[in-house]
């Protein structure tokens, strides 16, 4: 039997409810059996001095997916040395799961705008089908011709939440309840994350 595996990559600093909602909607619309959330170990396109510790981001991801039996969290990008490249992750997943698993990489429309700058970007759509969910502010981004036809655009209209906005709210003492799952809320409070200021 063919397994349809969704992949949610991201910095997840922190993971928030729209990440979960888009994964759920993609799973429903594309008939995915499972969605694995993979926090980036060393997101090389970000200023690494300002990104929270990978173990904290992984801990929050694990807490966030625990309540949904379709969702899992993977530390494969934390455990791989060097900069985190999605192409390596897709190759590793392909090796682990074999040819009978179909891979679907789920991302927001903002990623569509920058994916051409990713490492070995031309190989990405050979390795997985790409699913881009709509995101406020990115309605007019076109699919790069290099991505070919292994791309699906999913219109999922929801309010805009970003990890950046959540970090800012915490640093200002504003509530983030209902923007992130409660266990993530508790983790952020107990560990004192994001208090220092906006990044
Ligand atoms: P940051 O503000 O730190 O960039 P983010 O909210 O964009 O955080 P990321 O970890 O950068 O979250 O993104 C992980 C994935 O989730 C990306 O594919 C991104 O496009 C998608 N995503 C995040 N928030 C939304 C949203 N509100 N709508 C659609 N896609 C989203
Ligand atoms: Mg982002």
Describe this structure in words.
- The longest helix has 14 residues, at 17-30.
- Helix 2 runs antiparallel to helix 8.
- Helix 1 (17-30) links the parallel strand 1 and strand 2.
- This protein has helices spanning 17-30, 54-65, 76-79, 86-97, 109-114, 124-127, 163-171, 182-191, and strands at 3-10, 34-39, 71-73, 101-108, 129-133, 151-154.
- The chain is 36% helix and 17% strand.
- Strands 3-2-1-4-5-6 form a six-stranded parallel sheet, sandwiched between helices.
- With 199 residues, it is an alpha/beta fold.
- Adenosine-5'-triphosphate binds at residues 10-13, 18-19, 22, 107-108, 110-111, 133, 135, 160-164.
Comma- or semicolon-separated keywords:
199 residues, alpha/beta, 6-stranded parallel sheet, 8 helices, 6 strands, binds adenosine-5'-triphosphate
Helices and strands, with pairings:
Elements: E1 3-10, H1 17-30, E2 34-39, H2 54-65, E3 71-73, H3 76-79, H4 86-97, E4 101-108, H5 109-114, H6 124-127, E5 129-133, E6 151-154, H7 163-171, H8 182-191
Parallel strand pairs: 1-2, 1-4, 2-3, 4-5, 5-6
Bound molecules: adenosine-5'-triphosphate and magnesium ion (MG).
Brief account:
With 199 residues, the protein is α/β, with parallel strands linked by helices.
Q: Which stretches are low in confidence, meaning pLDDT under 50 for 5 or more residues running? A: none
From the N-terminal CA to the C-terminal CA, the straight-line distance is 45 Å
> From the helix content, strand content and strand pairing, which structural class follows?
alpha/beta
The biggest beta sheet reads: 6 strands, parallel
Distinct small molecules: adenosine-5'-triphosphate, magnesium ion
State the total count of DSSP E strands.
6
**Helical proportion, percent range:** 25-40%
Strand order of the largest sheet: 3-2-1-4-5-6
Question: What's the helix-strand series?
Answer: EHEHEHHEHHEEHH
Mean pLDDT: 93
**CA radius of gyration:** 16 Å
Strand share of the residues? 15-25%
- Gross morphology is globular
Total DSSP helices: 8
């Amino acid at each position: 039997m063919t397994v349809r595996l969704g992949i949610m990559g991201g910095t997840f600093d922190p993971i928030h409810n729209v990440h979960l909602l888009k994964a759920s909607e993609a799973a429903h619309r594309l008939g995915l059996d499972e969605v694995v959330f993979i926090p980036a170990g060393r997101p090389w396109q970000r200023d690494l001095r300002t990104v929270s510790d990978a173990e904290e981001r992984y801990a929050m991801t694990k807490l966030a997916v625990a309540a949904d039996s379709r969702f899992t969290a993977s530390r494969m990008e934390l455990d791989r040395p060097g900069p985190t490249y999605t192409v390596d992750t897709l190759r590793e997943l392909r090796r682990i799961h074999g040819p009978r698993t179909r891979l679907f990489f789920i991302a927001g429309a903002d990623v569509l705008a920058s994916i051409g700058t990713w490492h070995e970007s031309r190989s990405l759509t050979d390795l997985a089908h790409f699913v881009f969910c709509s995101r406020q502010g990115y309605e007019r981004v076109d699919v790069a011709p290099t991505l070919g036809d292994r791309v699906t655009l999913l219109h999922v209209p929801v309010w805009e939440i970003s990890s950046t906005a959540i970090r800012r709210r915490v640093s200002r003492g504003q509530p983030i309840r209902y923007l992130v799952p409660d266990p993530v809320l508790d983790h952020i409070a107990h560990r004192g994350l994001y208090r220092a200021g906006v990044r």
